[in-house]
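Q: I'm building a small set of examples for a reading group on sequence design. Run inverse folding on the following structure and report the sequence directly after it, with nothing in between.
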């Protein structure tokens, strides 16, 4: 049995709910394994998720299973190389060129992008992501920008979803405060 290198527990700020995940170091990369349970859009939501990244923090795959109200969710997202992605075996040309997967219901996946980008204070990067839109649960292109403004702070913008804010993070890149959406309760 693998031992996690880190564990995180967030509280949703915008709706009742929590998210918990563990990070594992693999021989050839990293794995996030977590669960999000929350109330949104008048429905109970419960998602188990797994995200795999290579040693350079490039996302290889993600899976999400659970339910959104009465609807069962079972998604397998996979990089097939050269910026190409598949969802449940079907190519998704709309996200061509993305390196990261952003699961729209958890702050856990921002950590992967931040580690991959490895920005120095003052550096800015465009990091479009293959974004699992919530509550639609479909993969779309999400233009996003990170500007590192301090040792543990990033100005973050995702204009197509109307979000901008200053993310506070741990030295490891895990989000402490995602203004208006999530706050870290504890980590280990």
């Amino acid at each position: 049995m693998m031992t996690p290198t880190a564990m995180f527990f967030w509280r949703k700020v915008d709706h009742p709910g929590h998210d918990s995940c563990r990070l594992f170091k693999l021989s050839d990369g990293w794995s996030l394994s977590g669960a999000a349970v929350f109330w949104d859009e008048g429905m109970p939501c419960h998602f188990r998720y797994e995200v795999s990244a290579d040693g350079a923090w490039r996302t290889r795959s993600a899976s999400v299973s659970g339910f959104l109200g009465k609807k069962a969710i079972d998604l397998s997202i996979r990089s097939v190389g050269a910026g190409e992605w598949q969802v449940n075996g079907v190519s998704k040309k709309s996200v061509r060129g993305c390196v990261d997967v952003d699961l729209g219901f958890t702050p856990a996946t921002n950590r992967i992008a931040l580690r991959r980008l490895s920005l120095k204070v003052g550096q800015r990067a465009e990091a479009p992501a293959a974004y699992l839109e919530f509550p639609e649960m479909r993969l779309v292109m999400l233009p996003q920008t990170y500007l590192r403004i301090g040792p543990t702070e990033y100005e973050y913008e995702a204009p197509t979803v109307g979000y901008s804010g200053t993310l506070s993070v741990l030295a490891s890149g895990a989000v402490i405060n995602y203004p208006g959406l999530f706050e870290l309760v504890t980590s280990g």
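The chain has a mean pLDDT of 96.
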